[in-house]
Design goal:
By secondary structure, the protein is mostly helical. It is 49% helix and 3% strand. It is built from five helices and two strands; from the N terminus they run ααααββα. The chain has helices at residues 7-19, 33-47, 59-71, 98-113, 132-149; strands at residues 123-124, 128-129. β1 and β2 (128-129) form a beta hairpin.
Length: 152
């Protein structure tokens, strides 16, 4: 299973981010590629405990749905809704400069995948408390989902 705990998987995500362009055409959803970059920045900050995001969870999401999302060998489907605080079309970060936002996102990916981490047991708004290993798996899958959204 791919995870940002592995250097090769982190390198893969960084290489795919380099291919993302401001005019990359989405295959699904409402976000532009630049909005997706801002959404991923917000998600990284949420993961690090730097951004508060409202809960939308219950027992099924914290158990069955979490297990399916993290461990079934299937890509996440289109149409998954995000929380308003990390949705650039609602209350999330707004796009300003694509190049600087990509640079910031790359820096965050490197920090998340570094050996010293600060998000163990941080609360996910849907999946609840997660271990460091679960967060790193989620992060890889989340990046993969949005990069596939733009054919990268």
């Amino acid at each position: 299973m791919k995870t940002l705990a592995r250097q090769r998987d982190t390198i893969e995500i960084l290489e795919r981010l380099e291919k993302l362009r401001p005019d990359s055409v989405r295959r699904w959803g409402k976000m532009s590629s630049h909005q997706a970059v801002c959404h991923l920045i917000d998600a990284c900050r949420m993961m690090a405990g730097e951004k508060q995001v409202s809960d939308a969870t219950g027992l099924p999401q914290q158990t069955i749905v979490k297990w399916m999302a993290l461990y079934l060998p299937l890509p996440w489907p289109p149409g998954i809704l995000t929380r308003p605080e990390i949705d650039p079309q609602i209350d999330g970060r707004k796009p300003i400069d694509f190049a600087s936002d990509i640079n910031e996102l790359e820096t965050l990916v490197k920090a998340i995948s570094a050996e010293v981490r600060h998000f163990d047991r941080q609360r996910h708004p849907i999946f609840g408390r997660m271990s460091e290993a679960a967060w790193l798996r989620w992060a890889y899958l989340h990046f993969d989902h949005h990069l596939r959204q733009f054919g990268v």
